[in-house]
Design brief:
Elements lengths: L14 E2 L19 H8 L9 H23 L3 H15 L4 E8 L4 E9 L13 E3 L4 H9 L3 E4 L7 H9 L2 E11 L2 E11 L9 H29 L10 H18 L3 E8 L2 H8 L1 H19 L5 E7 L2 E7 L3 H18 L4 E7 L10 H18 L5 E2 L30 H14 L5 H16 L3 E7 L5 E9 L13 E3 L4 H7 L4 E4 L7 H9 L4 E8 L5 E8 L10 H11 L3
Parallel strand pairs: 11-12
Antiparallel strand pairs: 1-5, 2-3, 2-7, 3-4, 5-6, 6-7, 8-10, 8-11, 9-10, 13-14, 13-18, 14-15, 16-17, 17-18
Helix pairs in contact: 2-3, 2-6, 3-6, 8-9, 9-10, 11-15, 12-13, 12-16, 13-16
Length: 580
Amino acid sequence: MTSAPDPADRPGPSVVRPESTTPSEEQIPAPRADTPSVRRALESEPEVGGADAGSAADLGFRLHSLIEFVSLVSAARGYADLLRVMASEGRKALEASTASLSVWERERGRMRTLVNDGALGPEELADPVDEVYSLSDHPLARRMFALGTGYVQTLGDPDADVKVESILRREAKNSCLALPIMFEGRIWGEFWVTRMADLPPFTEDDLEFASVVASQVSAGIAQAEHLKRVERLAYTDDLTGLANRRGFEDRLDEALTLHRALGTPVGVIVVDVNGLKRINDRRGHVSGDRALTTFGAELSTAASGLPDTLAARLGGDEFCLLVVGAPSDAVVALAHDVCSRASSVLEEGVSCGVATTDDLPDAGVTPSRLLRAADAAQYRAKRSGSAVPVVAGRTAHVATDPSAAGSVPERRQFRGRGTTDPGQALDEVLRRLDAAEDRDPCARLVAVAEVLRESVDAASWFVSVLRAGTSTVITMQHTVVRRTEGEDYYVIDTYDIDDFPATYAALTGHSIVVDVDDPRSDPDEVALLMLGGLSEMVMCGGADADGDRWVLEICADELSAPVRPYVSVLRAGVALALAR
């Protein structure tokens, strides 16, 4: 099928074969080569070498083509793959130059081309994005669907359809043939093939074998539609009907690939429904599910406002929007719309975080980093009770000093009770280490940890070791002062150092700061902080006299004072604790 600039330039039949009939569901053959039409052809096969030797050769080629067609269709995997195989093998079986498969969109009264194959014209695409035409403009095509009859059009036919003639000339084709494709007893769409000028034109005699090929295409469509339904179930959330996490992550991978290749902007909006547990506790899970489905419908409506936007439910009370091709300001505006819609259908609204490739450093942007940046912004919105979206990588206020625009993103407003000056904290570290009689590195690091916990009102601290010659980090001592309400704090007793490069850097003597609001922070470390409802962490380490490597981590939440100013205290304290 030709993708012409004017959708009205869509071929319709000029020669309709009256005796052709629409195959019923029972008449559609299984994907085998021994169909009644083929058996009849075999029974009438002339002797090789006789007057019809050429016809015998043609029949042998057609039988081989059908067997090849059935074999490849049976081996195809996935909906798109099946469509490509059917178009390609149908074209070969009919010795055509091009082949197209189009689906009939009844609710819109139009045909949509799904795949084109072969020697395509300058305006044809193998995988067309929006090649459609209205049946209201093509009475002969409507007749084909009404009667279930195929048609043939030849270049130069005095009775030819004018539009078909124009397309054939423009695309350097000498003829075309079309047949309806059946599925579950109804017309599914159209199989359309053409030949170039160097091939003999199609004739009405080709319609009989073409109908056999079309029947095999119909069987393949049944297989393809089944796979499509399976794929839809695999990528759809049962409760809301939105995409599920798998569907979202696959689409995010594709979007970031497009971003790296063409610079196409990508935005992620992570939304958490507030108070779902309270709804479930007070009114039951049926009410909770109703709240989720109601908000899911609002999210889908909001997503329709921007092209190429996917709405998904990641699980539980967490939803997401993936926006491809829109600038960051449009993504943020969509997030505001989501919050507004949520406030009208949910008692406590939602917490919303946004991350876009426009606002984050371009180097090293990955699907997981983009999602985690949006997730971190959403956690920040939830902790602060924000009714509007929080955007990763942006300031949360309007700078009054023009010279300040584009500077370091705004820090969260901590309510830290820690008031110890870093200099005083270092003096206290020295005093406790001098008084310590225990030379065990773990005990001495615990002393440093306690000083810093008191100084910044830290939420937790961890002392861990990587024994010489191993790759497993073991948590030796830890203290959790505060847990985020409604969340289970997760303590990893052992983990592989290869999975946490930032921790490895700290074990080798570097000072590392991890901030959930900073997209430059290690995403795996950020994920752990968010799991515990934490906001910031500093860590530093080094080797002891036995060659074992130790690391001390100080973690902060919204009640803590900023821990970044205490990095030098941590570095000095760890070095002294591990001194030989």
